Amino acid sequence: MDRFDALQAFARVVEAGSFTKAAATLHLSKTTVTQLVQQLEARLRVKLLHRTTRKVSVTKEGAEYYARVVRVLADLEDADAEVTSVLGAARGRLRVDVPSPFARLVLMPALPAFHRRYPDIQLDIGASDRVADVIADNIDCVLRGGEVTVPSLIARRVGELQLAVYASSDYVRRAGRPAVPQDLEAPGHQVVGFLRSSSGKVAPMVLYRRAARSEESIEVRGRCVVSTDDGNAYLAAGLAGLGALWLPCYMAAPHVARGELVPVLPDWQVPPMPMYLAYPPTRSVSPKLRSFASWIDELMAGLASA
């Protein structure tokens, strides 16, 4: 038994809650992962995992052992990272998950510059607005808009996105231009709903404006004829005239320039959306992850000043 492989297999099974998922992230067969964990238990003479046909859970002894194993594996990764840093450039495969509109409109167009700077880093990019299971899917880091609510992740704020309310020019001609947020809840108006992946419910549109001595805030829900959990589909629905919508300005800008979208409610503001880079605490901040994070900082700074 290779003790390192066995420790890594055990840790991944605990994190993924499944031998099948752990095997997939380790690029091993389920049989191999099962044998490694069984050999580890035999050597320790301790049952580390409870196994049923539906799920895998950790025993009390297994949980205590896992806490130590995580530290050992992290120390080994830190040692590798220090050697790599001394030897030179960051290298290796980095698995990243980002929102699909951000990937299409910001990240992908900027990648040639990234690869000129870091030619030895291979990026595997998952693009989705759904919340990825970072540990189970063996993702190194995620870039997400909004507060990171997963307590098992370390999150670092990398910037924020400016948002505003828009509608298609066809929608404005047909329904009229709303003068105040309450107009969007009146008959004849509608909004495109964005579904929160965590709850499956439509996120309300929050607007505010500042006066000389006060600040007024209002939450708009409006009537939805279509809702979606994908940013690209959300934008497409707005362009099709299916309702007003609130968008990051970078998404709306090219369509505003072509006259396809028009800003509405200019006297009201949408709170900026914070952007976070998050990664599991069991993964050390390797040179490749550190390099990517630094580049994302620059990318977000450039987006904010555009």
From TrEMBL:
Keywords: DNA-binding, Transcription, Transcription regulation. Pfam families: HTH_1, LysR_substrate. It comes from the Bacteria. Residues 1-59 form the HTH lysR-type domain. Belongs to the LysR transcriptional regulatory family. This is LysR substrate-binding domain-containing protein. It comes from Ideonella lacteola.
